[in-house]
Amino acid sequence: MTLLLAESTNDIVPPVNYSLVPPWMIFVASLLVLTILGLTVWYGRKLFHKEKPIPTPRERTLVALVEIEKEVERINPYQFSIRVSDILRRYVMEQFDLPMTRQTSVEFLNAIGSAANFSDDEKTLLADFLNRCDLIKFARYEATSADSRLLLDEARQFVKGGALVTA
Questions:
Q1: For residues 124 and 141, what is the distance between their CA atoms, to the nearest angstrom?
Q2: pLDDT in tens, 143-159
Q3: What are the residue boundaries of the structural domains of the chain, listed by start?
Q4: pTM exceeds 0.70 for this model
Q5: What angle do CA 78, 144, 141 make, to 5 degrees?
Q6: Which of 96, 103, 99 is nearest to 117 (CA)?
């Protein structure tokens, strides 16, 4: 009886491939769908995440001058004149591509004497600013916070482009 039972049962057959689409087509379609999805996400993020515009040298300088204005009463005029002078020199170097940070005030004023980049008012304002800074820094002029404010006003007015308006 056991022999008869063993003959009547069939062996297990391997799985039947019943897919109408070949496996390579499924792979290519999946790759295509994932690529389209990835590109959609990438372009969507790029579209909605607008890059912040890079501030111009003028904008950066005006922000630096506003920041240092908060310290005009706390910093002694000597240190204040150095910091404001550095801010303005960096602005001229970035905005006009002039080597102001590597020149003395006199050398720089001589260099811009014939430059077309600056109006006469700007040249006068810059000369006055640099002379005041040099007076405070090198002649050890006993400056006050009012002198610091005047330096700050001259620097701000130069960056904005115009003559200093005295009240």
A1: 21
A2: 788 888 888 888 898 88
A3: 19-51, 57-160
A4: no
A5: 55
A6: 96
